[in-house]
Amino acid sequence: MTELNIGVLSIQGDVSENVSSTQDALKEFGEKGTVSTVKTPEQIAKVDGLIIPGGESTMIGQLSLVNGSLKKIKEKIEEGMPVLGICAGLILLSKDAKDRVIGEIDQPLLDLLDVQVERNSFGRQKDSFETEIAMDSINIPKFNGIFIRAPSIIEVGEKVEIISKFNEKIVAVKQDNMLGTAFHPELSSDISIHRYFVNMIKQAKRD
Ligand code: GLN
Fold it and tell me: What total of structural domains would you count in the chain?
């Protein structure tokens, strides 16, 4: 059995929760592997899959631009490495992002996921909420979505599969090896999305 080496980008944001959810998912599969926090281009070069956690997208983008990891992440995703972008991570994956109130913002983006994202689409911190959502196309019919200053996706390109909507807003998408959620799966006790993502990495490693 090949060992999976899964990284969680640890520049800023919800890192440790993603490490434990991914470890639990690996355990459930009986899969050998390691989950490590990664920050530098050298560390990123070694992973088979990467989670970009929620946090503050401007901060994560700028710091990873400066230390060279943004470029490395982009290269790896283009080579086929599976990536899960959560909230701020989804924003970073996108081709275009604007803030609901401020409008266009100059922030570093990976420019890979063919979507336009609206930051803070559901309001500010005090408007954070939890709600049940469905992701039938990836066999997760029920999931407790935790939305914290969450973005939504307001435009999608042809190759993008819409996985979930809440109140008419798109909140989860997939495009090839990229999976993005506007909510925080690592904050819920349900590890189905992490399990799905580990499976994407397994498949990619097999190909
Ligand atoms: N609002 C944050 C941003 O735009 C994202 C919030 C989150 O990741 N929980 O970067």
Answer: 1
Q: For ligand 1, say whether the CB of 62 is within 6 Å of any of its atoms.
A: no
Domain range holding 99?
4-206
* 194 counts as catalytic: no
Residue 187 is predicted with a pLDDT of: 97
Task: Say which CATH number the domain at 165 has.
Answer: 3.40.50.880
> What DSSP string describes 106-152?
-------EEEEEEETTT-SGGG-EEEEEEEGGGTEEEEEEEESS--E
Using the mean position of ligand 1's atoms as its centre, give its distance from the Cα of residue 5 in Å.
26
Atom of ligand 1 nearest to the CA of 99: 4
User: From residue 197, how far is each of 25, 49, 67, 87, 166 by CA, in Å?
Assistant: 9, 9, 26, 15, 21
- Report whether residue 119 contacts ligand 1, using a CB cutoff of 6 Å: yes
Question: Could you state, in chain order, the average pLDDT of each consecutive group of 10 residues for the chain (207 residues)?
Answer: 90 96 94 94 98 97 97 98 98 96 92 97 85 97 97 98 97 98 97 97 91
Is 87 catalytic? The answer is yes
Q: Is 54 in the pocket of ligand 1 (CB under 6 A)?
A: yes
